[in-house]
Amino acid sequence: MSATLEIRNLHARVEGQEQPILRGVNLVVKQGEVHALMGPNGSGKSTLANVLLGNPAYEVTEGEILLDGENLLEMEADERSRAGLFLAFQYPVAIPGVTLANFLRHAINARMKAQDPDTKGISIPQFTRLMREKMTMLGIDHSFAGRYLNEGFSGGEKKRAEVLQMAVLEPKIAILDETDSGLDIDALRIVAEGVSKLVGPNMGALVITHYQRLLNYIKPDRVHVMYAGRIVESGGAELALRLEEEGYERIRSAYAASEA
Amino acid sequence: MVVQKRTRGEAVPQYTRADVETLSALRQEPQWLRDARLAAWEIYESLPMPSMEEEWRRTDYRHIRWQEAALLSTPNGAMAEHIPAKMLTPLMGDTEGGTLAFVDGKLVQHRLADALKVQGVIFTDLETAVREHSDLLQKYFMTQAVKPSDGKFAALHGALWQYGAFVYVPRNKAAELPLHVVIYNTHSGASLGHVLVVVEENAQATVQVDYASAPHGDAHATYIGATELIVGDAANLRYVALQEWNRTTYEFSHQRAIVGRDASCDWVLGTMGSRLTKAFIEVDAVGKGANARVSGFFFADKGQFFDLDTQQNHNAPLTVTDLLFKGAAKDNARTLWQGMIKSLPKMQKIDGYQACRNLLLSDNARMDSIPGLEIEADDVACSHAATFGTLEEQLIFYLMSRGITRPEAELMVIDGFFDELLQRIPFEGVRERLQEAIEAKIIG
User: Fold this and answer.
1) Is the reported ipTM for this assembly greater than 0.90?
2) Chain A to chain B, count of Cβ pairs less than 8 Å apart?
3) Does B416 contact A111 at a Cβ distance shorter than 8 Å?
4) Rg (CA), chain B
């Protein structure tokens, strides 16, 4: 059975602030599907990504998020992750003193422990093999595993490390928050090819991007446009091309009236 | 009949010169030692209890009940079997060259490998050393590193010290196996322990010292200690001291390493226990090219107050000192680090570094760091840093977003914070022990 992420009339704001950022988002993403989420800066795309994972910096004031009918809003971020959700962060934080390998092993073991509290977790050789395989697939130097998580990583390295985590954790639904931004053309190709290898029958994706270029590698089934906290237009892959051509001016003037 | 009234805590310990004379007489100490004790006593008497001077003004120890805490502790039958196994575990290698364990100041275990004996290595308790190696003690004991004139508690220690370890590695000899000293207390009162390590020219030693005590209700205990590390020219000392006193113990200690020409001293300190610790930790780089590295771990929780006072003295040119302290405080704990790098005039090409990095784990905890430099030379590379951080929610969220539970995520971030310090420690066993301490502090 394929998993379904369902977002219903979602309203959210920054914790402690009045101004809503999400103002009634509706979206359904199924395992095996690729959805692109586009829109100008400040429209709420990153907020949506963070709210889906349960970032405590945001507060949901209305609406529902369901994964296979289960209410994600009642779950902490770690439970949502173990339920099959993944977020490739736009700005991954650096965690001094914690190596990428150590971190990922903990993440795998946390999943195994949730299934079987008595598990000893993944064996070191098994884990090493898994890391090597995925790093090779993503063109990541193997020495990466021993580096402190995101510390001193270049922009491209951070994005690749996010995709590596996705490859290792094999989520049902992945949200990629501007995984393409700031990458040079070669890095973009490697990251995009990596992502496109992962999307398929086992993984659905919500790809947040400003630009069409990532979508040349990852063909979206649906394209959505977000503006002022709502999805204002949805269409096929051709909508992304159209937005690329005309920019967001049309969207702004068409939907600015509804913003108040 | 006189009804004894419950009195308030005494503000100062009520020792007398007779206490010093009695102690020395009971042990049938040689004249030089008796004289040294009495000279220290004179200094003790001449000094006020420290309170408002710069090193002490943030440290309030007035709540000590000296009527309990000053009682000179005597062994009460506790034996080696009472020492927790954890403390006896060798951390600096699989095989130890020797063990010296004290319970309530009494020597309960003593072993030295033959391989070290034949090299002329001395590893014994101070009482024995006074009898058998009087010349060496007369030369080194509280004459070079820690002196009674260093302060009120150093003077008290000099007058009334009770027990301790003597490590001596002769010239050109390498004590290849680590030596392990265990100091364990089981009751309240004053414990005055001493560690004296002398590594002669071109010699080498590796020493681990564990301090701990069993809980003894709410009665107060003090540890008024001294550590002296004397590292001769071209010698090498690796020294690890871990402190896990119970929560009714107050430590006042003076610790100093003297590092000779082209010598190297790698000193690791872990402060986990005690109600209050006031430690003066000093390194004197006295010979050209001397190199000292000091790595301090501390983690304070409920009701604890650690006051760590470090000083790096560059008394010769081309000396290098590198000091890093990293600590955390949770609950209502308080920590204070005061650091100082000093140089004698015209000591060129010296390189001194000091940093204290703090992780605040509670809004009710408080951490202070006060670095300082007093350099009287111009061709130097000296720097200092103090940083403060908290457990950032965005770091925790990042880890949790990968399925890691909150407690585990917090532990990972805290472990990560300490990693920089642990990486400086060349002994896996020590790193593991500190990691266990971190975990125990977080859970406890």
Assistant:
1) yes
2) 88
3) no
4) 21
